[in-house]
Design goal:
366 residues, mainly alpha, 15 helices, globular, binds zinc ion
Length: 366
């Protein structure tokens, strides 16, 4: 208890022995309220790096605007305040809403979902479903035009409606991305509450990354190897097991800071796991025109994640000018933006995989 809190309590005790309703009493009550308010505002002010509890001292190049030991309510409402985590929260929150919007748009294409939604709204779904389908086709055609326009035959697109590939692997990826982006936002918002919640939040953040990596494998592996179910099973089981093992390791009581490099190794191996099916796919589909487009998208994704990780690890630019990028422009915010760009590139590739499999069915392996 600090000095002013003590004063507030003593005044409260004095008031108990006074007759209620007196003007003195009212003045005292007002003063007490004012004091309490002043104490609370003071307590939830932003602090500098040197005033932080040890568990929050992570980036010595960000000097100010920290929230420390804030109650959950204050931490929640700080989503609308300016502090050094505001943009970390909002970059991934907007990314989450972007993926939510894309998921809903794509769900409109699934006849069962469109039909289910039409139970609620009579006129909207048909138009929405048509638009969504056209939007996605535009996206696909636009992307294809950038790389290999002449390879796109209109009759192939018409044939799309005939044999539809299952959509669930695509939505598994969308769900994984939304989970990762939302858990990251929540983590950045509430990590200032207490040491124990801080530890839990960052574990959940890592779980989100693991889930996003694992679910990212579903569209390419499922659609590329749709005609070879045994390869589908081997690759998807392999990456899922690796992901589950990583998550168990994160929550294991043996998981201490000493295991940091082991954890990093697990995340790297999840990413590198993709090299095996990628080489396999390239070897068996050397002549497929969509190979170039999807490779361009997936290379853009890999590059985004690599550049993002470079900023994350190097702590550039704040390391060059400590204190200059506290509120905006520090490495973690840049990392978040590259994560969204990487996920968007993968979304573009996933759309191409789905529509390609719709057209070619299971006559040949890509
Ligand atoms: Zn983050």
């Amino acid at each position: 208890m600090n000095w002013s809190e003590g004063l507030v309590q003593r005044r409260g005790a004095d008031m108990d022995i006074r007759p209620s309703g007196s003007s003195d009493d009212t003045t005292q009550k007002k003063k007490t309220k004012k004091n309490k308010k002043r104490t609370e505002t003071k307590r939830y002010q932003l602090v500098s790096y040197w005033d932080l509890p040890d568990y929050m001292k992570d980036n010595e190049y960000i000097l100010d605007y920290y929230r420390a030991n804030w109650p959950l309510k204050e931490a929640l409402s700080s989503v609308f305040l300016w502090h050094n985590e505001t943009l970390n929260v909002w970059t991934h929150l907007l990314g989450f809403f972007l993926f939510l919007g894309l998921t809903i748009t794509n769900l409109m294409q699934v006849p069962q979902v469109a039909h289910f939604l039409s139970q609620f709204t009579r006129s909207f779904p048909v138009a929405a479903a048509t638009n969504a389908f056209n939007d996605s086709k535009d996206f696909y055609l636009g992307a294809a035009r950038l790389v290999e326009l002449e390879k796109m035959v209109p009759t192939e697109i018409v044939a799309a409606a005939v044999t539809k590939a299952p959509r669930w692997p695509f939505f598994v990826f969308m769900g994984g991305s939304m989970f990762c982006l939302l858990s990251s936002s929540i983590c950045h918002l509430f990590c200032c509450h207490s040491h124990s919640l801080n530890v839990l939040m960052f574990r959940i953040d890592y779980v989100g990354i693991a889930v996003m990596i694992v679910t990212s494998f579903f569209p390419p592996i499922y659609y590329i190897f749709q005609c070879s179910p045994h390869w589908q099973l081997i690759y998807l089981t392999g990456i899922t097991m690796l992901g589950i093992f990583t998550i168990i390791t994160l929550f294991s009581p043996l998981s201490t800071s000493k295991c940091r490099s082991f954890r990093a190794l697990l995340f790297v191996s999840m990413g590198l796991f993709g090299i095996i099916p990628a080489i396999h796919a390239i070897v068996v589909n050397w002549s497929e025109p969509q190979r170039a487009i999807t490779l361009a998208y997936e290379s853009a994704m890999a590059l985004s994640y690599l550049i993002g990780t470079f900023f994350y690890v190097s702590r550039i630019p704040e390391r060059w000018k400590p204190g200059w990028f506290d509120l905006a422009g520090h490495s973690h915010q840049i990392f978040h933006v590259f994560v969204i760009m990487g996920a968007m590139a993968h979304y573009g590739a996933a759309l191409i995989f789905v529509e390609w499999r719709d057209r070619v069915g299971c006559n040949r392996i890509m």
